[in-house]
Write a structure and sequence with these properties.
single chain, four-stranded mixed beta sheet, 2 helices, 12 strands, 13% helix, globular
Length: 177
């Protein structure tokens, strides 16, 4: 294991509107058209694909063990998306991951405020985690993982700050109430 790259990937929670779950994955903070580009362990990738395919009869998926690749098939036009496994380093461990939805799906980071918002809308909103540990959701503005976060804006803007953010961080924002 190359110790120089242990912090290249970080763990975060992500979500898609279509499946309404917070999903733990890894990111190098790369973006595609402004969207997150997460990668997931095999177990988490299976849960993601099962959730997505259960929402539509037009989609099926399977795992090709010989190629170490997940394949998603659109039954309407027979289009295929493929995601091959690769190894990353995080902290002091290596993980085999798959970039499910890369370059096609609209992944977003799940912040504390977004989690609270979705949980308020639907109490069954759940987090899917590698180790089933307490989530470390981050403040959008400062990255802190402790403290209470609050929703300041209505509509499509959900802004969160924590106790460590400066008081004037939302000054001059037109989208806040």
């Amino acid at each position: 294991m190359n110790q120089n790259n242990t912090n290249l990937y970080e763990k975060k929670y992500f979500f898609l509107d279509s499946i309404q779950k917070g999903i733990e994955g890894f990111t190098s903070n790369a973006r595609w058209n402004g969207w997150e580009c997460p990668s997931f362990t095999k177990e988490i990738a299976i849960e993601v694909l099962e959730s997505v395919s259960s929402e539509s009869e037009e989609i099926n998926w399977y795992y090709d063990e010989q190629k170490d690749t997940f394949i998603l098939v659109n039954n309407v036009d027979n289009a295929h998306d493929t995601w091959k496994g690769f190894t990353i380093e995080h902290s002091t461990s290596e993980y085999k991951v798959y970039s499910i939805g890369l370059g096609w799906w609209s992944w977003e980071e799940l912040t504390k405020a977004k989690y609270n918002h979705y949980k308020d809308l639907d109490d069954s909103f759940q987090l899917i985690s590698i180790n089933k540990e307490e989530p470390q959701l981050k403040c959008t503005f400062c990255g802190n993982t402790k403290g209470e976060h609050q929703i300041y804006c209505g509509g499509y803007y959900i802004l969160d700050t924590c106790d460590d953010c400066p008081d004037d961080i939302l000054r001059d924002r037109d989208d806040c109430e």
